[in-house]
Amino acid sequence: MAGSPVGVAVAGCGYWGRNLVRNLHQMGNLVAVCDPDPAALEAVRATYRGIEATPDLDRILDDQKVQAVALAVPAEQHYALAKKAMLAGKDAFVEKPLALEVPQAQELVDLAAREKRVLMVGHILEYHPAVRKLKEFVDAGELGELHYVYSTRLNLGKVRKEENILWSFAPHDISVILLLTGAMPEWASTSGQSYLQHDIADVTMTCLAFPGRLRAHIFVSWLHPYKEQKLVVIGSRKMAVFDDVAKEGKLKIFDKGIEWRDGEPVIRQTAESTLFFPEMEPLREELAHFVDCVRTRRTPRTDGVNGLKVLRVLDACQRSIREGGAPVRL
Fold first, then answer.
1. Nearest CA among 233, 45, 216, 56 for reference residue 134
2. Which residue, among 196, 247, 243, 251, has the nearest Cα to 221 in the 3D structure?
3. Reduced to 3 states, what is the DSSP secondary structure of residue 144?
4. Each residue of 220-273: pLDDT tens digit?
5. 8-125+282-300 has which CATH code?
6. Strands 203-209 and 30-34: what pairing?
7. pLDDT confidence of residue 5
8. With contact defined as beta carbons under 8 Å apart, do 305 and 109 qualify?
9. Model confidence at 1: pLDDT above 80
10. Which CATH code is given to the segment(s) 126-280+312-329?
């Protein structure tokens, strides 16, 4: 992915934005940072000499050195700022979710196509080497026919006031499940409950029904005693577990299942293999991919269409919560 530097500005230098700033600076692509908080800008000036730090987004969008803008702002600002950046002739990297409403996301996808802008969504797990390897196994038929997928994303905090746990945690799991299945669900059913704040769910459980018999389940919570980020894939031939909290050996393939002999179910349990991956930061891979797409004008792996699909599932899940967990068709 080597090539001439691409000038990227980061809008939003909070908890996650600082990670974008750090990686883009190390890659030699950071040219400016925008944030309304004077303390955040002062920290940027002290750490990254020579990088412009300003509260004025228009100033960044007028800067010829800035070819692209990476947005790490609150989710309710994603649509307006991504639209503004692309209309100013800049490519846009938008942290998940792409927008809060499906029509807004569709408008951004259409705008990117019309203006010939690169639009990429930060679905970071799609750049994790263990997830990429798992996708290879699924596509090669190693696991057989997919029966069901379930994921858990649990922790104590970080509690948000502006979005519920579904919108905060579940986009990661939805994006990976859509990647692995290569399909959109026909309906979604989500139940949630608010314990800490009125009308902001702390815990949700989702069922996604795909064409045929394939099902997926997603359990997310920020009210949990320990951290767990696990994805389990059950196939007709083999099973796989991606454990993102594990220090090493994050992906395991289990050659086990149930076979029928003389009309009786018999457990088949043979080999188990653990796959190890080099230490790397998926965010670095993701941002390197974005920079390369800006440079080459290729379509990103997690482009606006990808982000729109994830948002359509999220939207159906949210409507299901409002309807007491009733299935909502996509």
1. 233
2. 196
3. coil
4. 999 999 999 999 999 999 999 999 999 999 999 999 888 899 999 999 888 899
5. 3.40.50.720
6. unpaired
7. 87
8. yes
9. no
10. 3.30.360.10
Q: Which two tokens stand for residue 34?
A: 């925008």
Identify the three-state secondary structure at position 301.
Answer: coil
Domain residue ranges of the chain, discontinuous segments joined by +: 8-125+282-300, 126-280+312-329
- Per-residue model confidence as pLDDT tens digits over 27-86: 999 999 999 999 999 999 999 999 999 999 999 999 999 999 999 999 999 999 999 999
Contact (Cβ atoms closer than 8 angstroms) between residue 171 and residue 307: no
* Neighbour-count burial of 59, counting CB atoms closer than 10 A to its CB (0-12 exposed, 13-18 middle, 19+ buried): middle
Q: Give the E-state strand segments of 48-130 in sequence order.
A: 52-54, 68-71, 91-95, 119-122
Distance of CA 298 to the CA centre of its chain: 20
Q: What is this structure's pTM?
A: 0.94
What number is the average pLDDT over the span 76-104? 97
Q: Which two tokens stand for residue 93?
A: 């990297």
- Given a contact cutoff of 8 angstroms between Cβ atoms, the answer to whether 224 and 156 are in contact is yes
Q: Determine the straight-line distance between the first and last CA of the chain, rounded to whole angstroms.
A: 37
